[in-house]
Fold this sequence. Notes:
The chain is α/β, with parallel strands linked by helices. The chain is 40% helix and 15% strand. The chain has 5 helices and 5 strands; from the N terminus they run βααβαβαββα. The radius of gyration is 15 Å and the shape is globular. The mean pLDDT is 95. It binds ligand CA2.
Amino acid sequence: xxxxxxxxxxxxxxxxxxxxxxxxxxIYGTSTLAGVKSLCLETARTxxxxxxFEQTNHEGALVELIHRAGAEGSAIVINPAAYxxxxxxLLDAIKGVDAPTIEVHLSRPVARETFRAISxxxxxxxxxxxxxxxxxxxxxxxxxxxxxxxxxxxxx
Length: 156
Ligand code: CA2
């Protein structure tokens, strides 16, 4: 199977990530979400795979995007933002779809407040990348394509 036959990689972003590039640059870096999207599109282009990039501030909308990714995509890269630490709904959604999922964080949540040390999403993620800023998204896409490709080979 040719890698370009893969269904798109879905890159999903949770609440407040639309504010990137403004406040707290010492924690989240200086890239805007538009800059992160450009990096993701460029990474996908070099890997010869299509990419869908979405951000929402609403938990239910993120659940629906995960369902859509399960139906229309080959893998998910997700920064669930604060819902990482609270959302059993996101955990169940990821468990409910047949798409390998990579969790990405710009910062290193385990090295911050104690409430950020818990990730419900990690219970369902195939892997996680944190602390590398926007570059973590590029690594997350590479990992997602690797897993999707391995799975496609396994199924043929
Ligand atoms: O490090 C990450 O990527 C986080 O997922 C970002 C979340 C945070 O709740 C997680 O613990 C770790 C916060 C996203 C909000 O981003 C902002 C960016 C600029 C200004 C305000 C918020």
